[in-house]
Amino acid sequence: MIDGKKLQRILILRLGAIGDVVQTLPTVRQLQANFPNLEISWLLEQKSRPILDYDKTINLIEFPKEELKSVNPARAMWRMLKIRKQLKSQNFDLAIDLQGLFKSGFLAKFSGAKQVIGFHPQNTREGNQIFLDSYMSAIPKQTMHCIDLYQQVVRFLGGQIQPMDDPFQFYFEDHELSSVRTLLHRFRVKRPILLNLGASKATKRWPAQYFAKLILMIREAYPKAHILMTGAGKMDEDTELEILKSLPPGTCASAVNKTSLRELALLVKNASFLISGDSLALHLGSAFKIPSVGIFGGSALPVETKPYWEPYPGLSNPLPCYPCRKRTCSHHSCMTGILPHQVFREFQTYFQK
Hints:
alpha/beta; Rossmann fold; 14% strand
């Protein structure tokens, strides 16, 4: 065990995806609470950085993944050496790898930190342990939410998990709050029921026709409800159009491709309820304690990334191949087997009229 009270500068490695970055925030807040003199830096990818903008309690260091992919090998090598120089100049006492992959382990060691720690080999992949100087005890797989898993490092450093009213502590600027108020006014919605259409993998996406049926069920039961769809990118736009084609005009509004990451966060914060696949929006719902229903395909078990606060559920269809952890699937049965009336039943259970 490492004595966290003797540390001065540490580096957190949780590069992406964006939802995983959100789920890491409680660990950072616990480290700050347990070791108030600790200077914390965080190495993360460009796509994840906006979610932590304006947080002056963390030194953000951007790993230029997309840039490195787009340049020739010589320039990529030069850029990596520049990153190494930047990291080494910080004189980190400790690098904490909370991702558990070869890339994150390599970058942790690459940082020049005096020590590198991470998860037990049973809880990592791709030979991550070869970069670690020490690691935490093994944790039985598929028994713990990722938020709780990441926080085990606090105990490893000799700290205690402290009760917090807001373990995520997002920071927003006045101009962002004003922008989202204007957005909601334009949609003529107040405290909307959010239906998030998107997910990073095809195996996480719920069918458009199911969303359409669910919207009709909600409107029939709650005719005064304001329903707002969210999402980003071409796939979400196609799903949005398919849904709107099958609904009477005015049934719901759509903010698909109309928000930034941070505006999405504020929309979630202002929601009365959230229904989403395993995605950034669902994890933002946890951050703001929004009543939620998660819809889970084969890429993860609900216990790992479902809405964090009890009793909000994560629905799944546990087939023999579940969870496959794949990006695509030939039959998609795990998602098509979760029917609209099942989601609606859970929504009714927890929706406060």
